[in-house]
Amino acid sequence: MKDFLAHTETLRQKKGKLIVIDGGDGSGKTTQAKLLFRYLKSYKVPTKYFDFPQYYSSFHGKTVAKFLRGEFGNINQVSPYLASLAYALDRASAKNEMEFLLKKGGYIIANRYATSNIAHQGAKFFSIKEREHYLKWVYELEYKIHRIPKEDIVIYLYVPWQIGSKLTENRKKRKYLQGQTKDIHEKDLNHRIEVDKMYLSLAKRYRHWVKIDCVVRGKLLSPQEIHKKLIAVLQERKIIS
């Protein structure tokens, strides 16, 4: 850890790191993102936590909430392209703040990012050709048109959809869903299965994605056990020292 502390001394002279925590429903993204945030803050590392979508603070985040409540139709009635625009505009609204922090050498912990939208909307295409066309379009939208910061690493928390479904069965009502316990994606079992497949394919496809198995021999690991795995990955990839 001495090396890590020494590393923080030079953060101001280096570009920061954008760490994305992602995964399917019930994978513990928020828990792990907050644990990592506290870990870095405990070592006086300049760190900012972002939660996407920004349901309460962003105009476009509020539009995403409407979509997830089903106000524009079910998941088969709204084009993945149109849905992606609202998500992308929400992230773009945070672009300047994120860039400022990264230029100062700070760390950003993102609980979901463009990666999550790509998985959920990409899973709606069953034709490989159509899916690839969408992926090309959405990457251009996010990183070339809106020019949001490119993530340095994506930590993909893998919980099989069967277990994830059970973990979210008794979920509390969420404010942005206005009394509902599940959004339109979570209510559709077939969609959850396809999203599971999509995440796994993305983790294999991109080198900066790292899959962490959160279930071992049928048992869900504790938050601290998963956190230790996550820290080990970040050290191995030299995101932190």
From TrEMBL:
<dbReference type="InterPro" id="IPR018094">
    <property type="entry name" value="Thymidylate_kinase"/>
</dbReference>
<protein>
    <recommendedName>
        <fullName>Thymidylate kinase</fullName>
        <ecNumber>2.7.4.9</ecNumber>
    </recommendedName>
</protein>
<dbReference type="GO" id="GO:0005829">
    <property type="term" value="C:cytosol"/>
</dbReference>
<dbReference type="Pfam" id="PF02223">
    <property type="entry name" value="Thymidylate_kin"/>
</dbReference>
<comment type="function">
    <text>Phosphorylation of dTMP to form dTDP in both de novo and salvage pathways of dTTP synthesis.</text>
</comment>
<dbReference type="GO" id="GO:0006227">
    <property type="term" value="P:dUDP biosynthetic process"/>
</dbReference>
<keyword id="KW-0808">Transferase</keyword>
<dbReference type="GO" id="GO:0004798">
    <property type="term" value="F:dTMP kinase activity"/>
</dbReference>
<feature type="domain" description="Thymidylate kinase-like">
    <location>
        <begin position="21"/>
        <end position="212"/>
    </location>
</feature>
<comment type="similarity">
    <text>Belongs to the thymidylate kinase family.</text>
</comment>
<keyword id="KW-0418">Kinase</keyword>
<dbReference type="GO" id="GO:0005524">
    <property type="term" value="F:ATP binding"/>
</dbReference>
<keyword id="KW-0545">Nucleotide biosynthesis</keyword>
<keyword id="KW-0067">ATP-binding</keyword>
<feature type="binding site">
    <location>
        <begin position="23"/>
        <end position="30"/>
    </location>
    <ligand>
        <name>ATP</name>
    </ligand>
</feature>
<dbReference type="InterPro" id="IPR039430">
    <property type="entry name" value="Thymidylate_kin-like_dom"/>
</dbReference>
<dbReference type="InterPro" id="IPR027417">
    <property type="entry name" value="P-loop_NTPase"/>
</dbReference>
<dbReference type="GO" id="GO:0006233">
    <property type="term" value="P:dTDP biosynthetic process"/>
</dbReference>
<dbReference type="GO" id="GO:0006235">
    <property type="term" value="P:dTTP biosynthetic process"/>
</dbReference>
<keyword id="KW-0547">Nucleotide-binding</keyword>
